[in-house]
Design a protein that fits this description.
Structural class of chain B: mainly beta
Number of strands of chain B: 31
Distance between the termini of chain B: 89 Å
Oligomer: heterodimer
Strand order of the largest sheet of chain A: 4-3-5
Largest sheet of chain A: 3 strands, antiparallel
Distance between the termini of chain A: 77 Å
Helix content of chain B: 10-25%
Number of helices of chain B: 5
Largest interface: A-B, 61 and 41 residues
Shape of chain B: globular
Number of strands of chain A: 5
Structural class of chain A: mainly alpha
Chain lengths: 273, 437
């Protein structure tokens, strides 16, 4: 005679309760953790300053077929050296500080390319347009690549094929490109509007304002995350943000309704590291 | 496994994903200021609220005085009125009438509107400051006075504007005294900081030199040769009367008032050599500070009153030295150049301005009291001498002959924005900026 299966009697309800309880506990823990991390977001989510604006340039060349080498050889030049991959970041701090000089460098390298010289229209496109087009090309990638046949091909499709075959960026990387351009624009816009109230070189004041940007680029809300302790400095920061409103519209790839970013104002020249 | 587990698991996974999405890192942009940018401010013509026929000239004159003040402050950039899209004289000068967008379009951060009533004698001024960026009213003032006090009223409002926006004390109500040549003599004159409202203080028909302010702004000490010997006088500005304080044999020159208002440091000829001494305001000797076989002249006090800077040629050439207010701890601070003179200690205490002879011309420099951080403020423009600090520690007045004769100029403490403020035909020398009055 088999012994009575005591487990069969109690197993299901107990396990179910336990899992349910565990789920609730997990939920609570997660909730507490996330809400706590919201209250101190700054320290956790700074990134080391990165010159990310360079990512605007043509995609990195990974493997080059002999045929394509002619077209893309100038792009070996140093543009990409300044472009760190997101993954390479050592610390979790992320501070985007684009530099104007970077853009001019990029223009220089572009002008060296024979292809670009001929295709003048391409030059006139701004960075965003260029990227949107590049995204489209990637979608069409493989079929066109096979069809492309040597010298008589249109110059623009040469760029396509070279770009496509060289480096396939994932969609998240492209989203990053969009955002880096966007942050660059926001940075320039707010900086161009900001005027220090008088001579403040004696002490380094710092204020952080958190702004919420709507899809159309309007600043719908702004709050101080950290006041500098100098009301005149804080007021100048608020004025700069008010003057910069509206900012450029959010990148199309951004699906949410709002984007929250923090702006840190420094009264002295900000130096990396 | 029990089927009931699945919904719970799904809920768990979804909630995890939800929170993971929420806790994406937030991006921070670091912004540093553009060097040298000034606060853009718009000051349109003032509105005549009520007035007699010749009022119209003031609608342009009063804003011009105000604009000049704010430009000279070094903090503001006054926007060209030609670019304005709106005229408050037509639209109105109060908050409900102002269209901030049109002022923001022309690039201004602040707007000052004004209205006035003038009845050929009295002037009633009504001034408002608006924050264009935030679209709000910041401050309003009303002034009433005789028309001759018009500049004073405007200066006072300019002080308020600077304080409201930058937190700094304005200098628009301060004065400058200086030595002016007139009919062969040298007399002491006083004027507003912007070069207007010049008044002759002495009429000794002699040579009067090196005027200096008392810290309370009520008196001036100066040296005059009116009785043959260079004696020290103190003038009460209210009563316009001078009193002879120190008339020791030989030099009684280059006075400097102590910050506590009770004593004067000056140069006296003791035993043939000029030495720095301290006397009280009645002329009684308190202490002799230097004792060397050299010329020790031009003392000036640090703002805390614990130190004195002076010029001495004990090393062979005139150089700037500092010492404690009791004469101890003498230290040379200038080592560049062969002729450094007329030190002036900044009210903030961190700099000493002086003039230095270089390539045949005097130029103005600043240096820290410990002898570091030497900086040139003027250059390639004739002689620039006798610097004196404004009470805000941000402006310096000096005398320069870059246009032929010596005239007075003011500049910012970093040497920028050098503006000529006097237009006389004679030489104007050794200016001294008043404390806040």
């Amino acid at each position: 005679m088999n012994p009575p299966n005591i487990f069969s009697q109690y197993k299901s309800p107990r396990l179910g309760t336990m899992v349910g309880l565990s789920a609730v506990l997990h939920f609570i823990v997660l909730f507490v953790f996330t809400s706590f991390s919201f209250s101190i977001p700054k320290k956790d989510y700074y990134y080391r300053p990165v010159y990310q604006v360079d990512l605007v340039s043509l995609p990195r060349q990974k493997t080059v077929t002999p045929k394509e080498k002619k077209i893309s050889s100038p792009s070996k030049k140093p543009v990409h050296k300044l472009v760190p991959k997101v993954k390479k970041k050592v610390s979790r701090k992320k501070i985007i500080k684009p530099k104007k000089t970077v853009i001019s460098k990029e223009k220089k390298t572009e002008s060296k390319k024979p292809v670009m010289k001929k295709a003048e229209e391409k030059k006139e496109l701004n960075e965003t347009d260029y990227l949107v087009k590049a995204l489209d090309r990637i979608k069409k990638s493989s079929s066109k690549k096979n069809k492309s046949s040597g010298q008589k091909e249109a110059l623009s499709s040469k760029i396509q094929s070279s770009a496509n075959s060289q480096y396939q960026l994932s969609s998240s990387e492209y989203a990053n490109l969009h955002f880096n351009i966007y942050y660059n624009k926001v940075w320039e816009r707010i900086r161009s509007e900001w005027v220090l109230p008088g001579d403040m070189t004696e002490e380094n004041w710092e204020a952080t304002v958190s702004i919420r940007i709507s899809k159309s680029g309007h600043i719908v809300d702004s709050v101080f995350e950290k006041r500098s302790g100098n009301i005149y400095f804080d007021q100048s920061a608020i004025r700069a943000i008010n003057k910069a409103d509206p900012l450029p519209p959010l990148p199309l790839s951004y699906t949410k309704k709002y984007l929250d970013i923090g702006i840190r104002f420094h009264s002295l020249e900000y130096r990396n590291g | 496994m029990d089927k009931r587990i699945f919904p719970v698991l799904i809920l768990l996974i979804l909630s995890t994903l939800f929170f993971a999405k929420l806790s994406q890192p937030k991006v921070y942009l670091d912004i540093d200021p553009t060097v040298g940018r000034k606060i853009p401010i718009a000051i349109p013509f003032f509105k005549i609220l009520q007035g007699v026929s010749d009022s119209y000239k003031y609608q342009e004159l009063i804003p011009r005085i105000l604009s000049n003040d704010l430009e000279l402050s070094g903090y503001f950039k006054v926007i060209d009125p030609l670019s304005f899209l709106e005229d408050p004289r037509v639209v109105g000068i109060t908050l409900d009438r102002i269209n901030f967008k049109s002022w923001a379009t022309v690039g201004s951060e602040f707007l000052i509107t004004g209205g006035f009533t003038y009845d050929a004698k009295d002037l009633f001024l009504e001034l408002r400051l608006f924050d264009v960026a935030q679209g709000k009213f910041m401050m309003g003032k009303r002034y009433r006075g005789e028309i001759r006090d018009m500049r004073k009223m405007v200066h006072r409002f300019a002080d308020e504007v600077v304080y409201k926006i930058t937190g700094k004390v304005g200098i628009f109500c301060t004065k400058i005294v200086y030595v002016g040549s007139r009919s062969g003599n040298k007399e002491i004159f006083a004027m507003d900081f912007d070069g207007h409202n010049i008044k002759q203080l002495t009429n000794n028909k002699s040579i009067s030199l090196s005027p200096t302010w008392s810290p309370d702004g009520k008196k001036i000490a100066y040296t005059s040769y009116m009785e043959g010997n260079p004696d020290l006088f103190i003038m009460d500005l209210k009563r316009k009367k001078s009193l002879k304080i120190s008339y020791r044999k030989g030099l009684n020159i280059s006075p400097a008032w102590s910050p506590d208002n009770f004593y004067l440091a000056l140069t006296l000829s003791v035993n043939t050599y000029p030495e720095i001494c301290i006397i009280d305001t009645n002329g009684k000797m308190k202490k002799r500070l230097t004792n060397s076989w050299s010329n020790d002249v031009s003392p000036c006090w640090s703002p805390c009153g614990k130190k004195i800077a002076f010029v001495s040629n004990r090393s062979g050439s005139p150089q700037i030295y500092t010492m404690d207010a009791d004469g101890n701890n003498i230290k040379r601070i200038t080592f560049e150049g062969n002729y450094n003179a007329s030190p002036s200690w900044s009210p903030t205490g961190d700099k000493i301005a002086f003039s230095s002879l270089e390539n045949g011309n005097f130029d103005i420099f600043t240096i820290r009291p410990d002898g570091t951080d030497l900086r040139r403020l003027t250059g390639f423009s004739g002689n620039n001498e006798s610097p004196s600090w404004a009470p805000d520690g941000y402006h310096i007045v000096f005398s320069s002959n870059r246009d032929g004769k010596y005239h007075l100029y003011i500049m910012l403490a970093n040497g920028t924005k050098q503006v000529k403020i006097t237009k006389g035909e004679e030489n104007e020398l050794s200016p001294a900026w008043s404390p806040t009055l």
